[in-house]
Amino acid sequence: MPKPIKTRRLVLRELMDSDVPQLAHLAGDWDVARMTARIPFPYSEELARQWMETLTPGEFVRGTTFEGTLVGAVGYVPNDDGSAEIGYWIGRPWWGRGFATEAATALVRHCFASGGFKRLTCCHFDDNPASASVIRKLGFRPSGATTAWCDARQGEFPAQCYELNRPIAAVLWRLTA
Ligand SMILES: CC(C)(COP(=O)(O)OP(=O)(O)OC[C@H]1O[C@@H](n2cnc3c(N)ncnc32)[C@H](O)[C@@H]1OP(=O)(O)O)[C@@H](O)C(=O)NCCC(=O)NCCS
Asked: Fewer beta carbons within 10 Å, N or C terminal of the chain?
């Protein structure tokens, strides 16, 4: 099993079968699902298990845990141009504690230090100011507006896109990753 990624308060680790009920419960919250591209609504344990078993090649997903409890997930999907699109969500009971920023900061560092990516991308729906704030705190810069599919809402919605180039300091991160 790959080494977990540790932050000040969180551990990002591989998902396990035993995570399925908590995953389905937290990601099945309408206010989580509707802000993501790919979480359907309603969500079920069966759908969560299917998702875990059918990740696309190159896709990276880690469960975000706090004091041993699964509180969300982070991950990336490689883009066709050699960059990667990152994503994250935190279960509603843990919103507003800086967890998304802390987990996504570690994910970004992992992408640059160990994933070999030189550029990362990220998008949020226009009606998701909390994610806009997280992306800004990560240092991403706007790269344009688009529309993106939302499984939960079954439609295309306006979204904002961002990008982040690998910083020079990533050379040092490689040594400590
Ligand atoms: C977006 C999400 C990941 C944020 O998680 P979190 O752990 O609460 O995030 P953080 O605490 O690290 O940061 C949230 C920031 O958004 C801000 N924020 C929260 N609600 C806001 C709102 N309605 N308007 C503006 N800013 C808001 C917070 O003040 C905070 O910024 P600050 O630290 O500058 O004060 C979480 O709400 C979530 O999972 N939502 C559903 C799924 C989702 O949106 N995933 C991302 C898809 S792009």
From this structure: N
